[in-house]
Amino acid sequence: MRVQTKGTRDGRGVLFVGHDGTITPSGFLPLALGNVRADDVVDVYREHPLLRKIRAAEFGGRCGTCSFRELCGGSRARAFAAHGDPLAEDPGCAYAA
User: Fold this and answer.
1) pTM given for the model
2) Domain extents for the chain?
3) Sheet with 16-17, side-by-side order of all strands
4) Is 50 helix (H, G, I), strand (E, B) or coil?
5) pLDDT tens string 25-34
6) Torsion of Cα atoms, 30 then 76 then 84 then 40, to 10°
């Protein structure tokens, strides 16, 4: 199934901090990167390996070879839900390179 999608901001200028202080790339991507009670949120944003890979557009599958990977980035949450890997291809992308 292909869905309408726009580029994601997960880890690219935004982070999500939950009510308990858990830091995640977005509200839809439930991967704990740290906690504001113990970790400096700026350091997590700048240094966490997953966020660095997202910002560098180091994706797998079609997203990894797509000419729009740096502009779009696909849905990291949808990639995680479908493949268990937030850096995998976005299965809802309709673009065929």
Assistant:
1) 0.85
2) 16-83
3) 16-17, 22-24, 34-35
4) helix
5) 998 999 999 9
6) -40
